[in-house]
Amino acid sequence: MLIWFVAVYLLITVGVGFYASTRVKNSKDFAAGGRSMSFPLVAAMVFATWFGSEAVLGIPATFIEEGFAGIVEDPFGSFGCLMLVGLVFARPLYRMNLLTIGDFFRKRFGPNVELITSLVIIGSYLGWVAAQLTALGVVFNVLSDGSITTTQGMLIGTAIVLLYTLFGGMWSVALTDFMQMIIIVVGLVYLTWLIGDMAGGADVVISHAASEGKFTFMHSFEPRDIVAFIAAAVTMMFGSIPQQDVYARVMSAKTENIAARASMTGAVFYLSFCMLPIFLTYAASMIDPAMVQKWLAEDSQMILPHLIMERTPLFAQIMFFGALLSAIMSTASGTLLAPSVTFTENVLKRFIPDMTDRQFLLAMRISVVVMTAATSVFALYSDASIYEMVGNAYKVTLVAAVVPLFTGLFWKRATTQGALLAIAFGLLSWMYLEATYAETDFWPPQLAGLLFSALGMLLGSLLPQFVRSRREPLEPVAA
Asked: Is the same domain home to 237 and 367?
């Protein structure tokens, strides 16, 4: 019975996606919804795209083992990112009226910086999309009681997401996200009430977690721990800003005020609703400690799905898996579209500059298919957890794209040489430190890479200007 409800839900989602395709008349409709979306739609997209498998499975699994100290990156760093976008970045980026974030780098620093940052941004999506596809496999495996393997489930879910994203583009993402946001909110609120009551009440669960030290962000204030905390916070807070999915939501809004306010509203919704799966998973440790200990030893991401399957009635199972599938599919569709649009606009267009709009739209759709295939292969061969996949995805943009974006918008003296040196310093130092990093090292690789990137921007921008000023002859003094 549960599988039939899920099947009907998936068919409805695909139907909404196909309906959205009727609104796609050109490439701008496909990539950014024609800059015509209202506040509710944009806010729903921000929330639903970010509220993915890591929010329902990855974050709670990490919390139950490490508490708030283990989830500084996400959701707290992600909340900071979306607030910064709304407060600082949305309005100036919206006024530029560009199709992709890569277009900004071309306009500010030239085509070479555009190409490198676009490739970095595209590469960063492998981990995020792969996390969603892996979670789809887990869901179908649990729903079928093992009859469908995780790999088979991943391929089935991927095909469904690909289908409606391929035809409807950003309009498909917007309409399905709006529907899926409603299911996520209703489902999780109902389950919080049900599971909380089973555990003795919300106050009992929260008090128990507090007594176990789960709400502590830092276990000590040693310099190394402070640096590690900062590194975890900035990975998502800054590393997520130069991303096409964030930029696409800014550009899809009717006005710059809607873009800014929707981003901040989405941030508040995201942080608030991330707390509910955390609550549910911790409540599970009080309801069925033996089951939790078993899955902590095997795969902590399975705690919540098994609690729902073993301890709740059919209606609760429908609500949970409806919310979980909504979270995963909304994120997967948005994160498949973003790198595909970036590749077509900022990489392919360099080699085929004279494409008509129809050809450009076709190229974006082909890119969606290729990106889906690439992330599926990555997901199949990756042994990282869902939380690790998402966190690692933003390290590369943190060290290579954050400094050029920040300085390009807000520092007039930033130059192309500075941007290139920032990218080189950031990437090379990060890759070297990742290859040689040990847990006893003081500097986390991504934070060191960010600092080296800032140094590269300063040296590349200021040093040539200083040298030129020293070489200029002094003007003769008037008699």
From this structure: yes
